[in-house]
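The following block was generated as part of the benchmark described in Methods. Ligand: zinc ion.
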Amino acid sequence: MRVLGIETSCDETGVAIYDSEQGLLGDALYSQVKMHARYGGVIPELASRDHIRKTLPMLRQLMEDSGSPASSINGIAYTAGPGLIGALLVGASIGRSLAMAWNVPAIGVHHMEGHLLAPMLEANPPSFPFVALLVSGGHTQLVAVTGVGEYRLLGESLDDAAGEAFDKVAKMLGLAYPGGPRVAALATQGTPGRFVFPRPMINRPGLEFSFSGLKTAVRNTLIELGKQAELTEQDKADVALAFEEAVVQTLVIKCRRALQHSGLKTLIIAGGVSANKRLRASLQEMVDTQRSQLFYAQPKFCTDNGAMIAYAGCQRLMAGQHEGLAIFARPRWPLESLSSLRQSAAPSST
Ligand code: KG4
Ligand code: ZN
């Protein structure tokens, strides 16, 4: 089955074609980041308008480049949520309309399911069951996964998501949006040990996260430093390193606990923050001590992309799931409410 995937949930237009026999045939991404950067964050209305401009031309180009004419496409997958409602509606409307015109089924994909399954696109994919750490701009969740659509939430952030904390700290350090990669780059110049920030919630037994206290600790440190003298680049790098270490160590501790509690031996990480090199390296060290394995997607499939949506949609369409003719998008959508592929003997509409 050959599936066209469309991702428009936030500030990236992603398109891809995934073939269940041949794998990923092509993908393209357009980031609106320059447009939003001067506002310091994503402006929803501008995002929607830009998705309208970009999606169809990108789809045309992708189909041409990958040698996939409309007649070869057997299904369409679009991100139906969670995300910005206007942005989601662009992809949903285009996806649903193309499906109608080409007389193929369409499926609305959960954005976080897309992230969660992205490591499956790699040459050496993980096999079920596994623990998934989802770390993006909007989510920080630990999930026990036994199959596509079989998700049990083990713990999540009570306040900011990990990516959001990176973005807010970046702003405090005067770095442009999106801040995660910039904080990570600055941290490579940092002096280890100059600052040590709290590791939030590690002494509590559960698998919940909280990053707002850490953010406040960073803010207070910057204010104190600023009282003494103007902040130097070295000060900023030292703060960035201490912040990144605190986030990474917190995530590592919770992942180790999730592996131990669940008895599972495989950990996957997904979402924008899973591109973070320090996180990958520290988790690798941890899983080695647990005789477990770590899997993640290549960096371009950690952040938002169309390939993960095409892949996730293909799994569901192959199981016989698809939508009715209505166009639907959900700004909020709990991951645990998704249906398992095992329940989908008959076509269903979500
Ligand atoms: O998954 P994603 O592309 O979009 C959402 O679904 O939210 O994640 C974006 C988030 C942003 O907060 C960004 O700052 C963060 O992922 N991010 C990183 C890195 N690359 C992206 N955070 C830390 N280190 C990185 N290398
Ligand atoms: Zn995302």
